[in-house]
Amino acid sequence: MPATPLPPSVETAGGSKSSGPLGALENASSAAILRVLRVTLHTGFALLLAVALARTLMAGGSLRWVWAGAAVVLAAAYLAGTVVEKRHAEGRLVFNPRRYALPWLGVVTGLWAFLLAGSADFAWLAFPIFFLHLHLLPRRPALLIIALMTAAVIASQWAVSGAPVPHAAAVVGPVLGAVFSVITGLAYAALYREAENQRRAADQLRRTREELARSQHEAGVLAERERLAREIHDTLAQGLSSIVLLGRAAGQSLTDGDTATASGQLALVQQTAADNLAEARSFVRGLTPPQLEGTSLVEVLRRLCDNTEAGAAASGVPLRCRLEVDGEPQELPQTVRVTLLRAAQASLANVREHARATAAVVSLAFLGTEVTMDVYDDGTGFDPSVAEGATDAADGSGFGLRSLRERVTALNGLLAVESAPGEGTVVAIRLPVEER
Question: How many whole angstroms separate alpha carbon 136 and alpha carbon 156?
């Protein structure tokens, strides 16, 4: 397996880098096992080194302080490697020790071999060092080095015994220890890989969830922006446009000396401004349009037709507008009522401002599971494909049809616009409603 940071550490394997409860749950079992193995490995190394050092000092000899010094250097090197790697795994150290893993392993192994040459008591340190080779080296080189180290342990025990041939116990013991270390090390490596896979999967899931949350937030912002654009276009913009037209008509009436007409036009300006203010307040609070509060859709559309006719007359446009109702009126869902009202407002505003029509008819039909509304005018007409494609015009023309189509589509309804230059216009809407 590829080289990894210095000594095995549960933080690297198990997931101090995994954030969130999901990553913690996924890695908990593997991390616990890795932690036990790691602590056992480091504790075993320390105990074996301490016992070997004590036996060497008690044995006496002129070189015992040389071996003691080498043992202290080995302990310091081993401890330094573990501490540096652990801090890097926890994110407390920017320095990455990965590139120094193999030199560090070479120093530890070399110091062990030097101590083994001086005293066979250091032979048993080979077993925890086996784990380091299995963890840091590819499998075949690791097994080869473990075999050589095992042979060195057997040779040291044979040299101490003074026998002409090594005893069976001196061979079987190190070999069994090496086999056990290899099996345990391979199991540790499998757990390490699994923990790493879980950590990466948890990190990927966390990033995916963050990206999903960000994309949902952006989608929500765009949707809210579209909703605001529709509401402003269908309410405030239309009202302000009416105020501008009425104001111009009132100014012309005053210029002509017709104060009575101007007074009526200014009264309509005030009423339109008051209606717009109510719409704005309701719009900011996200409430029902004020026209629909405490009344039916039929009554609201009838008043809308009357106001459209009066506003056109005040602007000097001879427009007749009426409402026709087919079927027994029924209570409609609030979303359907709002959509039909906004559609009628936008359509009649277009009739007043652009169509140069003399007659407009709003036809509302209740069909049980569906409700339809057609807005007809006998004006100059237009090309619907061109109008809907003009959504980027500087004056916002063409946005009304797109906005209306989005409203209707959101309720699984159908919108059709039939018109041609010089032939008038019909805006037809069909919306599904729950059968009562």
Answer: 26
SS3 296: coil
Q: pLDDT by residue (tens digit) across 72-112?
A: 999 999 988 888 887 877 777 777 777 888 999 999 999 99
Q: How far is CA 202 from the centre of its chain?
A: 14
CATH code for the part of the protein at 318-436: 3.30.565.10
> What CA–CA distance (Å, rounded) separates 324 from 359?
13
Query: In terms of DSSP bridges, do strands 425-432 and 414-419 run parallel, antiparallel, or are they unpaired?
Result: antiparallel
Residue 84: Cβ within 10 Å count: 19
CA atoms within 13 A on the CB side of 108: 28
Express each pLDDT in 323-334 by its tens digit.
999 999 988 998
Residue 370 pairs in a beta bridge with 432
- Take residue 220 and report the two structure tokens written for it: 């929500």
Closest CA to 198 of 406, 12, 349, 429: 12
- The pair of three-digit structure tokens given for residue 393, joined into one six-digit string: 């015009």
Residue ranges, CATH 3.30.565.10, the chain: 318-436
